[in-house]
Amino acid sequence: MTAAAIEVAELTKRFGSFVAVDGISFAVGKGEVFGLLGPNGAGKSTAIRMLCGILAPTAGRGTVAGHDIGREPEAVRARIGYMSQRFSLYLDLTVAENLQFYGGIYGVPPARLRARQAWAVEMAGLQEQQRRLTGELSAGWRQRLALGCALLHEPEVVFLDEPTAGVDPISRRRFWTVIYELAATGVTCLVTTHYLDEAERCDRVGLIFAGRMIALDSPEALKLAQQVGALLEIESDSPLLALEALRGAEGVRYARLHGAHVRVFLSEPQEAAPRIARALEARGLRLSRAEVVTPSLEDVFVSLIRQAEHAASEGSP
Question: Quick check: helix, strand or coil at residue 280?
Answer without folding.
Answer: helix
